[in-house]
Amino acid sequence: MILLTVQFAYFIGKIVNELLIFYNQNPLFSFVSKEIIQILIFALCIYFGLKMIINQKEIQLKSLKKSFIWLVILYVLIQVLDSLYSFYGISSFDGYIDKLALYKDYLKTNYFILIVSSIVYYLQLLLFGIIVVNHSIKND
User: Fold this and answer.
1) How many distinct helices (H) and strands (E) make up the chain?
2) Range of the domain at 98
3) How far is CA 18 from CA 7, 11, 100, in A?
4) Angle between the 96-109 and 27-55 helix axes, to the nearest 10 degrees?
């Protein structure tokens, strides 16, 4: 479940980032918006996913197999959508490459932003742990 939510959050964050780059937004705003959206989507997916799991009275092997199959199908679907988006998405529009070059140049001049990008991934894992502990404390 965590791999699926991380990938889904990354996919949505990538779309938002590329849209903001395409519409000539401030590179810092594009970057911060992407990171915030990734964290929010990740937290919401984990929260509602755990809520659905906890609300089940008893977990049966049949429902567990069914849930696992759905998670694998959703993961593969997100991977396919991500690949299709990479080929046919905003990056295929005219002028996007020049705008992306300006965005990358801005990121190269500000190394702190790249460090924050790395920290966001670990923040998502920490957030996952906090949500799990919070749910387990509420249900005890």
Assistant:
1) 5, 0
2) 2-53+71-139
3) 16, 11, 8
4) 90
The conformational region for residue 72 under phi > 0 = left, psi -120 to 50 = alpha, else beta, is: alpha
Q: How many separate domains does the chain show?
A: 1
**Does a structural domain hold residue 64?**
no
The answer to whether position 65 is within a domain reads no
Rg, C-alpha atoms of the chain: 18
31 contacts: CB under 8 Å, gap ≥ 6: 17, 107, 113, 117
pTM score: 0.81
Q: Does residue 77 form part of some domain?
A: yes
Tens digits of residue pLDDT in 114-137:
888 888 888 888 888 888 888 777
Q: Mark out the alpha helices in the chain (DSSP H runs).
A: 2-22, 27-55, 61-88, 96-109, 111-139
CA dist 64 and 120 (Å) reads 31
Q: Kindly state the helix (H) or strand (E) to which residue 57 belongs, with its residue range.
A: none
pLDDT at 140: 61
3-state secondary structure of 80: helix
- Measuring CA to CA, how many Å separate 98 from each of 36, 87, 117? 25, 17, 22
30, part of any domain: yes
